[in-house]
TrEMBL record:
It is a multi-pass membrane protein. It is found in: Membrane. It holds the Pfam family DUF697. Residues 130-244 form the G domain. The keyword Aminoacyl-tRNA synthetase does not apply. The chain crosses the membrane at residues 42-64. Keywords: Coiled coil, Membrane, Transmembrane, Transmembrane helix. This is GTP-binding protein. PANTHER family: TRNA MODIFICATION GTPASE GTPBP3 (PTHR42714), TRNA MODIFICATION GTPASE GTPBP3, MITOCHONDRIAL (PTHR42714:SF2). InterPro entries: DUF697 (IPR021147), GTP-bd (IPR006073), P-loop_NTPase (IPR027417). Residues 87-114 form a coiled coil. Its main location: membrane.
């Protein structure tokens, strides 16, 4: 208890004692004077006792209650707060992630995202500062951790790869109210499969750090610069630590630090390149071996300065980054899921198109049938991406893309490409309808792939428009390895079952129609109406 409060307490007790003595004396005299007025004497007594109680209560409040309340208010004022706008942005992102998770069909991926979102929410609530120690296995990371926390935290001085998993320790720094978690990571650039797996863990922990201690034991190599640059590009705040500084002469150490500062210019400020000796080599003095104390005070001073000035922003930036990365992962999983579903639709419709063309003798009907099939394909792909496209809109998109295919010469080029691939695979001359059927499947595939890109980008073709998307898909789908696989599928699914590798007689037509009728049942009536309408127009013209 402070001296001023002790004196106040003594004075208060003396005052109370004096008042008690005075009260006793006053009551004695009053009892004699007011003996004839008992009611008045009782009221006066109650008044005096009340005043005395108030005085005692005020003294207790001043000495015990008020200091505690003042201390709580002071702590509340000093309690650090994460910037509200970044916190709100992170909360909104996590809310969006939870909504996206419900769309993911993969149970393992869904549970992983939910678990990670809860971890980020807990970090947002706790607001711990996470400092991650990152670097090669021989740079002395664990020695630096030991020196920082003042006790052994792991094996020191062993071969590369001592730390196999991320180890977390609590660190106390004067003047910082938040809990600081110091995380020692496995070394990077280690050999073997196990070393690669440990490096992946280390990189993951580094991306989750509020502050990164990038530990080196010499000049910065390119293999170390690359991860430092990658982490800086995603917004990681780093201190570059040149450890084992006791192994260098003072003038050499200055040159190395200057080179390091020049190498990391633009990534790390010069003041954030620091020399330490976390586990100095033993020295011999007068025949006695001595172990010098670790030299890490420059690092501690810089850490304290950075965390005091930027700690709250570092926490907010990191939580926002983690929530955004989680959102990106959720969007990636949903996009991959939708792409798989859409590609199944394209695969189905390309063979439907091949079957229709194979049994349709008139070229004009070929084009109309393909447009109708593509329109239905557009509608189904749109549903996968949550876009309610009606048949009228699907027909417009299909016809527009068909015109683009013709104008770019892709139709002619596709038929030549398919004919060459088929003849190479089967040899000899092929029926024209075989080439037409497989070409229709190929063009339907290009159209379907183009529509997938259209819906993936929120029904936008991009700066280059439909033309650029179609050309890109044509180039992607004309590669030798793809054409070989595609032609083999066509031979198996279209040509051999329908005997299209030789001239077909009219008696085979019912069999061919039967082959394609089942997949076309989903829109058979629509296709028939479309064909009848367009054929009427063709005959009138």
């Amino acid at each position: 208890m402070r001296l001023s409060r002790l004196l106040t307490l003594i004075a208060g007790l003396a005052l109370i004692l004096g008042l008690v003595i005075w009260l006793i004396d006053a009551l004695t005299r009053l009892s004699w004077q007011l003996y004839a007025y008992p009611l008045l004497s009782q009221l006066l007594l109650v008044l005096i006792m009340t005043l005395l109680a108030v005085l005692i209560g005020a003294l207790i409040y001043y000495l015990f209650v008020l200091p505690r309340a003042s201390k709580r208010r002071q702590q509340a004022r000093r309690q650090p707060r994460v910037p509200a706008e970044k916190t709100e942005a992170a909360e909104e992102t996590l809310k969006a992630v939870r909504q996206q998770v419900s769309q993911i069909q993969d149970e393992v991926a869904r549970q992983e995202l939910l678990l990670r979102s809860r971890e980020i929410e807990q970090n947002l609530a706790r607001g711990n500062l996470q400092i991650v120690v990152f670097g090669t296995g021989s740079a002395g990371k664990t020695s630096l951790v030991n020196a920082l926390i003042g006790r052994m935290a792991g094996k020191v001085g062993a071969a590369m790869g001592t730390t196999e998993v991320g180890e977390t320790y609590s660190l106390k720094l004067k003047g910082l109210l938040r809990e600081i978690l110091l995380i020692d990571t496995p070394g990077i650039l280690e050999a073997g499969v196990a070393g690669t797996e440990r490096e992946q863990l280390a990189r993951q922990l580094a991306t989750e750090a509020d502050l990164l201690l990038f530990v080196l034991d010499n000049d910065l190599r390119q293999s170390e610069y690359d991860p430092l640059q990658t982490l800086a590009e995603i917004g990681k705040r780093s201190l570059v630590i040149l450890n084992k500084s006791d192994l260098y002469r003072e003038e050499d150490l200055g040159l190395i630090l200057a080179r390091l500062q020049a190498r990391v210019r633009g990534l790390v400020a010069p003041a954030d390149v620091i020399a330490t000796a976390a586990n100095p080599a033993a020295i011999v003095v007068d025949g006695e071996t001595l172990q010098p104390d670790p030299d890490i005070m420059p690092l501690i001073r810089r850490m304290v300065a950075v965390l005091r000035a930027e700690g709250e922003d570092l926490i907010a930036d990191n939580i926002l980054l983690q929530s955004q990365r989680l959102g990106e992962k959720a969007r990636y999983l949903i996009d991959a899921q939708r792409r798989r579903q859409a590609e199944k639709i394209v695969d189905r419709f390309q063979w439907i198109s091949a079957g229709v063309i194979a049994v349709t003798p008139l070229p004009v009907v070929d084009l109309l049938a393909t447009a109708a099939i593509n329109a239905q394909m557009v509608v189904e792909i749109g549903r996968v991406y949550g876009c309610d496209i009606n048949m009228e809109r699907g027909r417009e998109l299909a016809l527009s893309l068909g015109k683009t295919l013709v104008s770019l010469g892709i139709v002619k080029g596709a038929m030549t490409l398919v004919a060459t691939a088929l003849e190479f695979s089967l040899g000899g001359m092929l029926a024209g309808r075989a080439i037409q059927g497989v070409s229709a499947a190929y063009l339907t595939r290009i159209a379907g792939k183009s529509f997938i890109e259209y819906f993936r980008h929120n029904q936008e073709w991009g700066d280059g428009g439909m033309t650029e998307v179609v050309q890109r898909q044509f180039q992607l789908n004309r590669k030798d390895e793809f054409m070989r696989a595609f032609v083999q599928q066509a031979i198996t699914r279209v040509i051999k079952p329908l005997n299209l590798d030789r001239d077909s007689s009219d008696t085979q037509a019912p069999v061919l129609l039967t082959e394609v009728r089942l997949p076309l049942e989903l829109k058979a009536e629509l296709l028939k109406a479309e064909l009848d309408s367009e054929l009427d127009d063709w005959h009138r013209s």
